[in-house]
Amino acid sequence: MDKLHLQKMAKKVRKGILTSVHSAKSGHPGGSLSATEAFTYLYFEEMNIDPKDPKKTDRDRFVLSKGHTAPGLYATLALRGYFPVEQLKTLRKVGSILQGHPDMKHIPGVDMSSGSLGQGISVAVGMALSAKMSNESYRVYTLLGDGETQEGQVWEAAMFAGHRKLDNLVVIVDNNGLQIDGRIEEVCSPYPMDEKFHAFNFHVINVEDGNDFDQLKAAFDEARETKGKPTAIIMKTVKGKGVSFMENNAGWHGKAPSDEEYAIAIEEIEKAGEL
């Protein structure tokens, strides 16, 4: 898929995020919007997957470690064909498969249920190790929040991945600079994040604009070419990207838009870039 089509798809993902969170009257739009380009690139360009055969054995795996940004993953999965887009409006409703965090037992395309922050990367490391031990070719991708890297479990997993030279593992950090309590550097700074991953024997790629498809392509291509060590892609993004009143606003970490805010947000996304 070329860049123009990826940009168009990202707009649809953003609209899906807002529609689901607005319908649920709860959820996490900020971090879902900041990671939209990453979700879109992974599922429409990077990963070896097949919505018609969600469990095929040689598929690439994705683990959403920052599970609260499920609306971003759900919108992407729906648009990729794993389940009807109309189901996005059932987010967090009784009887819906679309829970507040991803559930691998009920949602097609979800490779691992998400739990407490820090757990997803550990599972991804286990998947990557399994592939190596079984001589399988699949790759494993996991998306972390920057605030999530304050969890000690993240670095235990990183230590193991680096030690085992899991070059089929790509750890993506959505570095939007904000968490629920404010700026991550003020809450508990994980910086310099790149040097920390490097110390754990990771190949580190800093992406200046993680909402730009050209820069994401270059990063994922470099990760694929890296041998002998896992890769950490640390991408600077904008929390709430695409909606003016949500951008760089920690208050939108976990809050649903009102009817009026939803209408304004959808209009802004539709007009963005005049695609």
Keywords:
alpha/beta; Rossmann fold; two-stranded antiparallel ribbon; 7 strands
Write structural notes for this entry:
Helix content is about 40%, strand content about 10%. With about 280 residues, it is α/β, with parallel strands linked by helices. The protein has one domain (about 5-275): Rossmann fold. The strands form two sheets. The protein has a five-stranded parallel beta sheet with strand order 1-2-3-7-6, with helices on both faces.
Estimated radius of gyration: 17 Å
Order of strands across the main sheet: 1-2-3-7-6
**Assigned CATH architecture:** 3-Layer(aba) Sandwich
The coarse silhouette is globular
Tell me the distance between the termini.
15 Å
**Helix fraction bin:** 40-55%
CATH class: Alpha Beta
For this structure, the quaternary state is single chain
Stretches where pLDDT falls below 50 for ≥5 residues?
A: none
Major β-sheet profile: 5 strands, parallel
Question: What's the number of helices?
Answer: 10
User: What structural category do the secondary elements indicate?
Assistant: alpha/beta
The topology string of helices and strands comes to: HHHEHHEHEEEHHEHEH
Q: What's the CATH topology name?
A: Rossmann fold
Number of strands: 7
Can you say what the CATH homologous superfamily is?
Thiamin diphosphate (ThDP)-binding fold, Pyr/PP domains
- Strand percentage lies at 5-15%
Average the pLDDT over all residues and give the rounded result: 96
